[in-house]
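Board work, copied verbatim: dITP/XTP pyrophosphatase
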Amino acid sequence: MKKIIVATKNKGKAKEFKEFFASFDIQAISLLDLPESIPDIEETGTTFEENAALKAEQISERFNTAVIADDSGLIIDALNGRPGLFSARYAGEPTNDQANIDKVLQEMQDVPDQDRHARFICVLAIAQPGEETTFNTGYCEGYIHRNQKGDHGFGYDPIFIPKGYDVTMAELDPDKKNQISHRKNAIDQLEKWLHTL
Ligand SMILES: O=c1[nH]c(=O)c2ncn([C@@H]3O[C@H](COP(=O)(O)OP(=O)(O)OP(=O)(O)O)[C@@H](O)[C@H]3O)c2[nH]1
Ligand SMILES: [Mg+2]
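↓ predict structure ↓
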């Protein structure tokens, strides 16, 4: 089976990448699967693209092979785009999904239903030795619920209701999330390249 390194230490993302790539007969190997422990990559970029490139390029250089990295987040209109680039550590370090959810719900408590629009963004960077890094971006539109529901997925899934649905992303079956998510929409743009592996 072909393999590809995905430069992530996020268990939720790693699980989804494994599921996505299995359909291409490719085994996705996350940084959590590697025998040696890989130092955290500091995300000093000012955009999702910069952070995704930082992660993909550093790991591609270390292993001299093609590497995919994902920088993603939740963008909420009523919070002027926050948590955005800082979605992982919105409530501070170490990252804690529940604390992040609590902070968003607290900041959104007085926001009326019609103003609770939000979207997930996923930027994939593909770094290959000797080649320019390329990018694919996917979105998933929706809105922020007033409380959290469901226990599938990860991150902010329990408070995000995808457009066209009346349940949160965390209430959806994982296979369903993988059909509509920002990650899926970004990976769909990779299809041609994945067949070249
Ligand atoms: O509910 C969610 N469903 C998703 O599908 C999703 N995708 C991203 N996120 C949030 O955005 C942060 C990414 O930050 P991020 O791209 O820096 O990843 P990370 O730091 O968790 O791991 P790594 O990939 O950098 O190793 C994550 O921690 C989450 O809070 C999601 N939340
Ligand atoms: Mg990160």
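The pocket of magnesium ion (ligand 2) is lined by residues 43, 88 (CB under 6 Å).
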